[in-house]
Amino acid sequence: MRPEIVMRYLGFILLINALFLLISTAISWGQGDGSFAPLLFSAAVSFLFGVFPLIFVPPALEITNKEGLFIVVLGWLISCLVGVMPYVLWGGPFTFTNAWFESVSGFTTTGSSILSDIEGIPPGLLFWRASTHWLGGIGIIVFVLAVMPSMGPAAMVLYRSEISSLATDNFRYRTQKTLMIILYVYVGLTVLETLALLTQGLSLFDAVAHSFATIATGGFSTKNTSIAHFASPGVESILMVFMLVSGIHFGLLYLFATGSFRKIFESAMVRYYLGAVVLGVFAVCISVYTANYDSLTDALRYSAFQVLSVGTSTGFANADSSVWPPLSQLVLLFFTLQCACAGSTSGGIKVDRIVLFGKTLEKQIFKLRHPKGVFAIKIKGATVDEEIVEAAMVYILLYLGILLASTMIITAFHVDLLSAFSGAAAAMGNVGPGFGSVGSMANYAHLPSAVKWILTADMLLGRLEIFALILFVTIRRWK
Questions:
Q1: Angle of CA points 425, 465, 363, to nearest 5°
Q2: Is-above-0.90 flag for pTM?
Q3: Does residue 146 share a domain with residue 233?
Q4: How far apart are CA 101 and CA 426, in angstroms?
Q5: Structural domain that includes position 109
Q6: What mean pLDDT do residues 93-122 have?
Q7: Sign (positive/negative) of CA torsion 69, 72, 473, 59?
Q8: In whole numbers, what is the pLDDT of the chain averaged over residues?
Q9: Residues 279, 341: one domain?
Q10: 237 lies in the same domain as 90
């Protein structure tokens, strides 16, 4: 492996971070807030460390799988460290642990926060906080590849390291076109939502920040009480539409936008995703009606928003779901584990693997009925490779195993079981809010420092889909 080549590509990632830090610095300067110096210093450090490898290391169009994996994993870790700088330099509630938690939560689009007074944070720092969502949602590596000239085989190695194999199966274009499709859809949705929110009276700053958080399915709000602050059905409706859309595979969204309207509804994954959301909203609505809301309209409004928010791993809140009945909380926990489609910005196990699990279960039942029969798992008439099915089943088991282990460790720090389990599930799924003491109207500030580090590890495992980190730490065993 060539460390200098890895450093060169990490330099591009640092420069992208420096650009958004500089934009945040400009906002801070325009607002005259107290985050100007921390942001400017962080931008300068990120720029200097990013530009040096580009000056001294010659470009390389071909990189190995090992180098690609190192670039992806280290790219995420370095970006999270860059995100820590302005928080720590500004001070306030940001100890190093809290700053690390907020930064990792931002870049992994988890949306969990240690902030009790979000509105007391300077606008420049809040914009940087929102930017970590937007950069993390598109995937820093994908963003860099999309805005740079074609890098030949190197782009393919990095692309495959960054994007889930479940997502790449739905793309039928060469790498560079696929990357540009992702960028077009991502930026286009962000602009459309910003314009829509402006029609509801939000300031440009709030509209952009919430669009960043929605399209990235992140959930960082600029308000202490999240979306409940606006108390606006119009704002909530816009957010629900864009949360729902952001949970769909971006390749299918591109086809839909370019005239292939039927493709999106021909997808078994999308049909299951939409059907699960409808059933989830119905179940939660029936559960909270009369128990929490006298009006059926209110019950539908709040249940639909919360199901979509959790089911797409966004994490916004317009109500305190911690006081809802057990049935509604169980439904939300299911969506916390599942989330939305591969190829979107959503986290969690993803509906694609749930559909494959259902098909595998169906196949096993048929085999029990007809022991001599030969059965294959098919989606849209095409046989799914056994390796893909096996990888999906292993991933689900590994995901649940890590979640169980995290819960057990967290409870050892005297955190109650509901908060420990839901918090770990929200971290693994990059969802944000859990239940109990880490509910939708609470935060994670009160948790012990060790628990915060465990949760950030879960966030990174969930965002990198577990195997990337496992391969990274066992890199010396590679042949």
A1: 90
A2: yes
A3: no
A4: 14
A5: 1-162
A6: 96
A7: positive
A8: 88
A9: yes
A10: no
Q: What percentage of the chain carries pLDDT values higher than 90?
A: 64
Tell me if 313 sits within 8 A of 344, measured CB to CB.
no
**Final residue in a domain of this structure, among 114, 132, 162:** 162
Same domain, yes or no: 145 and 176: no
Of 162, 188, 217, the last residue of a domain is 162
Planar angle of CA 212, 213, 217, nearest 5 degrees: 120
Does residue 184 share a domain with residue 119?
A: no
SS (H, E, C) the chain: CCHHHHHHHHHHHHHHHHHHHHHHHHHHHHHCCCCHHHHHHHHHHHHHHHHHHHHHCCCCCCCCHHHHHHHHHHHHHHHHHHHHHHHHHHCCCCCHHHHHHHHHHHHCCCCCCCCCCHHHCCHHHHHHHHHHHHHHHHCHHHHHHHHCCCCCHHHHHHHHHHCCHHHHCCCCCCHHHHHHHHHHHHHHHHHHHHHHHHCCCCCHHHHHHHHHHHHCCCCCCCCCCHHHHCCCHHHHHHHHHHHHHHCCCHHHHHHHHCCCHHHHHHCHHHHHHHHHHHHHHHHHHHHHECCCECCHHHHHHHHHHHHHHHHCCCCCCCCCHHHCCHHHHHHHHHHHHHCCCCCCCCCCCCHHHHHHHHHHHHHHHHHHHCCCCCCCCEECCEECCHHHHHHHHHHHHHHHHHHHHHHHHHHCCCCCHHHHHHHHHHHHCCCCCCCHHHCCCCCCCCCCHHHHHHHHHHHHHHHCCCHHHHHHHCHHHCC
Question: Angle at Cα 75 formed by Cα 177 and Cα 184, nearest 5°?
Answer: 25
Distance between CA atoms of residues 384 and 451, nearest Å:
40
pLDDT, tens only, 233-291: 999 999 999 999 999 988 888 888 887 778 788 888 899 999 999 999 999 999 999 89
Q: Note the pLDDT of residue 151.
A: 45
Looking at the fold, whether 229 and 351 belong to one and the same domain comes out as: yes
- Tell me how far apart the alpha carbons of residues 270 and 381 are, in angstroms, rounded to a whole number: 16
Q: What gap in Å lies between CA 197 and CA 154, rounded to an integer?
A: 39
Do 426 and 322 fall into the same domain? yes
Work out the pLDDT band at 143, boundaries 50, 70, 90.
Answer: low
Q: What is the mean pLDDT of residues 365-380?
A: 82
Percent of the chain with pLDDT over 70: 91
Residue 292 and residue 397 share a domain: yes
173 pLDDT above the threshold of 80: no
Give the number of domains in the chain: 2
